[in-house]
Structure of VOC domain-containing protein:
Amino acid sequence: MRGWAGWTAPHAPRPLLLIGRAFDGQPAAPGNGQMLALQASNRALVDRCHALALAQGGHCEGPPALRAHYHPDYYGAYFRDLDGNKLGVCCHRAE
């Protein structure tokens, strides 16, 4: 059992919705156990989004980096907004 379920539109390359346990194993709570993830067209856009979020007062939850535990080309960054919501920006393209 994977511990999560996903939904994908026919012929889509990636899931559009995933539901699962909190990644850190802690109980789900506001800001932990849910995350909005946005897909960027390139890695430079991931970098810019993360920098902009921090410049506006957001908190870093993971700097832009390759994250091979997802797949070899997954480049992502994570941050929390001023209300504590976790967001991510990622690029799946090899560059």
Q: What stands out?
A: Strands lie at 4-7, 17-20, 36-39, 59-66, 75-80, 86-91. The domain at 37-95 is CATH 3.10.180.10 (2,3-Dihydroxybiphenyl 1,2-Dioxygenase; domain 1).
